[in-house]
Recover the amino acids of this structure.
């Protein structure tokens, strides 16, 4: 049970136990970027925004050693290390740090909380989205907040990087929704990206993925407390507790958690499973203890989450096609970076065939691309928990010299 | 779109168009069996019950040519042919009929609506469950109805068969939840079953499957109109329309539909998919047309369904272990029939590894067992729509002479 708890913690960045920092851990702190007016991909605008970020290592004088790590759906910029007041280790601590695959002795590694981050109520997350106060009304935006796309995540990141004097990335690397951002970076701003790593990713949402993602939205949309997104007046005094459609939110997170995993890992975890559970056999209202476990974990993960933010994240993923135009090849043709795709072999959420399709499309278009599958029993989550198995590959890829076309 | 509509129709036994019978179709009619007191596996009792059944071919004088076909979660006893007043063809019409794999010139084929059938409001289904009137109170049972297991389905079927003079089955064959019943028949009543065919099945629910199935229950449990199962007072005058937690019911059926399919089939169906849908890009309340399509299909399928019945069906599957005791081998060791497992190669709901495990366990226990995978692009649904690819195998298996141990 320890492994799964730490996996779930990594996913939600909430540790059940607020562990004190251990002597050897890298310490990291959160920064905040304050932005002014921002125009979204769909043409709509907001007057200001803010996002959190954190970094590791030093930016060199030429500002050419920066690696951007873009985060996944339920994640944040907490990639590695631990905050001074404790909490969980960052989700890719195994590969980001001094001497590690993404070597912070060599690279300046930065990660930025996305807009509409899943956890606006997490004290370690700074984001702007439907739960934020619209300065023009003094009320939460709710669904007045513009629909957000992966391109918008990228454009916010670009603004933050430019504020730090970074005009070009040694690499952009991301897992899952982070991989969408990484690829979008490389095709939207080809002259700013030298290397792109897509972990457990895809280049375009297909109808199957659209409909699968929608299963995460329906529980929220069907919850009467969602109230067409206008539940913020229900806000209570304890600002760390989210409000609104809690049942729908919990159900949504139950599904996200389960779909990110694989039968092998779940079944190994519950090797003491009693199929013919007495309580479940006698009483239609009773459930197997494993159901209670999943509900409980989802409730914990819902603590800092906002339902509208989840809806917006789902939408951003549903609308994704690299380059953000009708035709995928047209987008991919813009890429100049060398690409590395690392899907998880047993991924049930984003099947490896999706990454393979992106990789093969790039090769067909005459681009540099590599492909390797991550082995493991965790399914989609192997992109997080089994990433260390690809540490050498990653290190080598990042060290490869590039012949720039310009 | 035609194929998917017919697949969805087959699944729910509701045809969008009420087609008239075509000259060559087998005509079939529904019978009803009235039972008295029934004691469930968990020891609880009801005073009476009724279930529908239909049959094909003639029972011979020795009453030894009977084949029982046990139905899947969303199905009924409508296996083949068409009702005189129209409706859809039975789901396995491709393999059940005169001269077909399950040859009704040779065998007496019978199928029986299960207890707690998903569609108590379907005029072609007769079932007993939470939506039925408890004769002792004059009210619907709701959650007072005993928890039902796969063994209870089998025991009801046994009673119906005995009423027709059938003491022994040439074969019992079922897909998905039907395969659970087929296997349970063979281990609960080993001296009554000569051949057992498990299509897209398993021998025991594992923790992963338990939790996946629970995702179908949560939408109903979270719907305030579910009201702890006591929504029958909301019943309206139109008895063909189901009542209660309609939003939860629709969402549950959306998920069931999707999980039974495979990306290849869904993506082929929507080859005109526009990822960057304009409405979805502009308005958080808009959805891609494919989402609307899935919602619409689920609403149609919800028409005759009952939410509590779905909860009971989920529970029956969650509690399944062949033989209904703690240890699977102990159950499987009882089997005397020859077994044939036919999982679908691309099944994402019940992975072929589950059927393979059952098959290999039987071989280890010295039993006769065969294993073949159904190829196709439909995932779990290949057990229905691609079954004809295994017609010859099935025909041969049914014709094999058996040396009975007794």
């Amino acid at each position: 049970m320890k492994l799964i708890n730490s996996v779930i913690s990594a996913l939600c960045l909430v540790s059940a136990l607020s562990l004190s920092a251990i002597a050897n851990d890298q310490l990291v702190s959160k920064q905040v970027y304050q932005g002014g007016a921002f125009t979204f991909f769909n043409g709509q605008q907001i007057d200001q925004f803010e996002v959190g970020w954190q970094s590791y290592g030093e930016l060199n004088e030429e500002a050419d050693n920066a690696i951007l790590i873009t985060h996944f759906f339920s994640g944040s910029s907490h990639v590695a290390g631990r905050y001074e007041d404790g909490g969980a280790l960052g989700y890719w601590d195994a590969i980001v740090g001094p001497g590690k695959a993404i070597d912070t002795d060599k690279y300046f590694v930065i990660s930025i909380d996305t807009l509409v981050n899943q956890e606006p109520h997490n004290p370690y997350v700074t984001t702007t989205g439907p739960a934020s106060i619209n300065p023009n009304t003094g009320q939460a935006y709710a669904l007045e907040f513009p629909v957000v796309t992966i391109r918008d995540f990228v454009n916010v990141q670009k603004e933050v990087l430019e504020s730090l004097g970074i005009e070009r990335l040694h690499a952009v690397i991301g897992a899952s929704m982070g991989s969408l951002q990484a690829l979008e970076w490389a095709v939207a701003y080809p002259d700013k990206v030298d290397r792109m790593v897509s972990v457990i990713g895809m280049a375009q949402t297909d109808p199957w993925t659209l409909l699968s993602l929608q299963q995460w939205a329906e529980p929220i949309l069907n919850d009467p407390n969602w109230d067409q997104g206008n539940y913020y007046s229900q806000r209570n005094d304890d600002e760390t507790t989210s409000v609104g459609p809690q049942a729908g939110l919990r159900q949504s997170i139950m599904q996200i958690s389960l779909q990110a995993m694989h039968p092998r890992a779940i079944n190994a975890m519950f090797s003491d499973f009693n199929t013919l559970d007495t309580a479940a056999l006698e009483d239609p209202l009773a459930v197997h203890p494993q159901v209670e476990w999943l509900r409980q974990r989802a409730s914990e993960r819902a603590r800092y989450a906002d339902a509208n933010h989840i809806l917006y994240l789902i939408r951003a993923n549903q609308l994704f096609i690299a380059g953000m135009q009708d035709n995928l090849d047209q987008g991919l043709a813009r890429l100049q970076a060398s690409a590395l795709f690392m899907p998880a072999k047993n991924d049930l959420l984003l099947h490896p065939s999706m990454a393979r399709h992106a990789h093969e499309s790039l090769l067909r278009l005459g681009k540099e691309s590599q492909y390797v599958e991550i082995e493991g029993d965790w399914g989609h989550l192997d992109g997080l928990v089994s990433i260390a198995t690809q540490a050498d590959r990653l290190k080598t890829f990042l060290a490869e010299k590039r012949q720039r076309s310009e």
Summary: The longest helix of chain B spans residues 207-221. Residues 8-21 of chain B have pLDDT under 50 and may be disordered. Residues 26 and 81 of chain B are 4 Å apart (CA to CA). Chain B has 13 helices and 16 strands.
